[in-house]
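PROTEIN DESIGN WORKSHEET
SECTION A - STRUCTURE
LENGTH: 664
TOKENS:
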């Protein structure tokens, strides 16, 4: 036990000693994989060869350095760091050194013997650093006995110079690839004489993979298996895509090409390349115009504001009327009748009329009155702008066949939702109480809905796009033609008069609510190929070629048969502005209310005509001195209306001292 403790102490002291130079500006490498010191027999032959090649001391300085910087020997003369990281010459500025491979490997037995913990720092036996054998001496001199091992990792760098470790697993290899049609990612076309090995298959992924394969030397060759997933794998999984992942895992294929959703279940089977995109999932529900009750129609103009906000607005307008009366009630231009009750009602009129009219309805004469009008105008500006914005959305909102507005709304109402079975775990974590109907494929989701097995769908955005082109209806009709289903009704196949599948069967299925989740897209590959092919894919992505291929192949996609609001695109094209116009029903509620107010005004006008008096006179709140009638030689006569002439108005004034009067 004592010897073990002494050994552990010596190893710790050694680690400290190795790091002391680093504290003085010298980096000798990590404690578990230190740089070989100058003069060591481990590097003597290699050092001699470097001197012969005109690069004395190359990598043998006993510390981490940028040994390649400005060195013509390694192709770094004139290289700059402008393009780093990511450039072809970035290795010129990475630190590295030669190391002893026996010290850079983890020794679990010695780690435990010396009281260490595997994987933790503090004991040189308990961790490891990557290293590689140098081939530069053998390549340039033919000397195969002068061995040397280098490590970038011990110096905290990455090896971007020698990519042999990345290319070796796949360079010159034949890859067995399974493939199927999927969106613009991969599809069968005419054989391209420039790429006959693809047998006519093309698409974003085919081009991206081909570009990646050419990065290896010798280039990668492919052998296509167009049968997709094997029968034995299909027996284990209902999804043919997951079955293909299993084929990769068990060695039936090296890769399956398609836009695979990366799910926990599939990652448990095989590894995936660097993701090349994402699929966004949305809630989809049937859309159809539905009738509205008279009450709902009349309610629409008031929906932009909540009841509480309407209450606040009403109280503010009453308060504004009070302020108008106090600050400007002496203004004879606006308040001809100085009766207190009359001024109160006139102020209420100014307040409410100004609000619905979008501006001040009176003409204040005093400074306080004008200041109060500014405050009132600001309130009107903000509230009416908000009201208008919300009202525009509400007026064009029409009912849906289900009345569902989101996935959570469907869950709360107990509506069954059709989903792809492979993402059930993710969706179940988001909606634990949901009732799901599982589909083995995205293309089968609309069919399940039309069959009445669910009332809504959650599906990826690419699936929604495909659905609206009519491809899924065409596929369902094809299942009738090949005998999978016995009738169009059973398959929910919709045909036109000529018996051909229609393209607008699913136009009534539209997105509702926001984004639910995002699932990354990638390709399953054999474990030993992951690093190499991921490197190639990452290079292709960083070069922007995947985006270029997406833009190119997006032009080959069939056009959508549907417009944005769930109607057939053909109908929308015949009258493109029709969907942008507000229907009569949208303004029906506002119109009925406005007409009601107008009828009230007419009734009051008829009362004036019938009595020959103004409403103020009828209510007994006017003064004859304030009213002057046109001199027609007649008095008030029932059934006629006499012209009114405003009386000569006195200057607007408060109870202030006036020159020439007492107290002047």
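SECTION B - SEQUENCE
RESIDUE ASSIGNMENT:
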């Amino acid at each position: 036990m004592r010897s073990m403790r002494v050994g552990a102490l010596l190893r710790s002291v050694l680690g400290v000693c190795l790091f002391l130079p680093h504290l003085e500006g010298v980096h000798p490498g990590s404690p578990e994989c230190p740089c070989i010191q100058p003069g060591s027999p481990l590097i003597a032959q290699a050092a001699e060869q470097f001197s012969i090649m005109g690069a004395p001391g190359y990598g043998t300085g006993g510390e981490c350095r940028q040994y390649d910087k400005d060195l013509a020997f390694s192709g770094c003369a004139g290289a700059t760091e402008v393009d780093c990281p990511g450039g072809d010459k970035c290795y010129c500025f990475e630190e590295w050194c030669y190391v002893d491979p026996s010290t850079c490997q983890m020794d679990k037995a010695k780690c435990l013997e010396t009281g260490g913990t595997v994987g933790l720092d503090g004991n040189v036996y308990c961790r490891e650093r990557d290293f590689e054998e140098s081939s530069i001496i053998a390549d340039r001199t033919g000397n195969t006995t002068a061995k040397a091992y280098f490590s970038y990792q011990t110096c905290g760098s990455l090896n971007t110079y020698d990519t042999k470790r990345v290319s070796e697993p796949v360079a010159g290899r034949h890859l067995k690839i399974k493939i199927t049609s999927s969106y613009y990612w991969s599809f069968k076309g005419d054989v391209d004489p420039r790429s006959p090995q693809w047998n006519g298959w093309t698409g974003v992924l085919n081009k991206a993979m081909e570009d990646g394969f050419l990065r290896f030397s010798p280039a990668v060759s492919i052998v296509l298996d167009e049968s997709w997933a094997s029968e034995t794998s299909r027996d284990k999984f209902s999804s043919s895509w997951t079955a293909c992942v299993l084929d990769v895992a068990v060695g039936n294929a090296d890769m399956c090409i398609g836009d695979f959703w990366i799910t926990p279940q599939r990652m448990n089977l095989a590894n995936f390349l660097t993701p090349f995109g994402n699929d966004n999932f949305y809630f989809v529900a049937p859309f159809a115009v539905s009738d509205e009750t008279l009450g709902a129609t009349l309610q629409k103009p008031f929906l932009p504001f909540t009841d509480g906000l309407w209450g606040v607005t009403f109280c503010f307008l009453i308060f504004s009327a009070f302020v108008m009366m106090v600050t400007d009630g002496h203004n004879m231009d606006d308040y001809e009748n100085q009766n207190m009750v009359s001024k109160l009602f006139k102020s209420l009129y100014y307040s409410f009329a100004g609000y619905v009219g979008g501006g001040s309805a009176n003409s204040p004469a005093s400074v306080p009155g004008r200041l109060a009008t500014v405050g009132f105008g600001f309130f009107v500006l903000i509230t009416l702008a908000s009201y208008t914005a919300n009202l525009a959305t509400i007026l064009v909102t029409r009912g849906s066949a289900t009345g569902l507005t989101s996935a959570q709304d469907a869950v709360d109402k107990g509506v069954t939702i059709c989903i792809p079975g492979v993402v059930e775990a993710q969706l179940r974590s988001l909606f634990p109480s949901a009732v799901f109907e599982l589909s083995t494929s995205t293309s089968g989701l609309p069919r399940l809905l039309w069959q009445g097995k669910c009332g809504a769908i959650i599906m990826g955005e690419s699936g929604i796009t495909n659905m609206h082109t009519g491809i899924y209806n065409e596929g369902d009709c094809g299942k009738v033609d090949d005998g999978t289903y016995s009738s169009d009704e059973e398959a929910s196949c919709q045909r036109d008069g000529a018996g051909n599948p229609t393209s607008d069967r699913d136009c009534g299925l539209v997105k509702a609510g926001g984004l639910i989740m995002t699932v990354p897209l990638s390709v399953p590959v054999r474990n030993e190929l992951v690093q190499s092919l991921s490197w190639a894919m990452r290079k292709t992505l960083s070069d922007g070629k995947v985006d270029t291929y997406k833009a190119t192949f997006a032009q080959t996609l069939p056009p959508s048969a549907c417009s944005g609001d769930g109607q057939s695109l053909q109908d929308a094209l015949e009258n493109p502005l029709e969907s942008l116009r507000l229907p009569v029903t949208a303004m029906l509620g506002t119109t009925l209310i406005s007409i009601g107010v107008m009828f009230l005004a007419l009734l009051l006008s008829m009362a004036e005509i019938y009595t020959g008096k103004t409403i103020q006179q009828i209510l007994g709140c006017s003064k004859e001195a304030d009213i002057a009638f046109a001199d027609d030689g007649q008095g008030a006569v029932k059934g006629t209306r006499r012209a009114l002439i405003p009386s000569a108005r006195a200057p607007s004034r408060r109870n202030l001292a006036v020159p020439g009067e007492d107290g002047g």
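SECTION C - NOTES
The two ends are 115 Å apart (CA to CA).
The longest helix spans residues 367-396.
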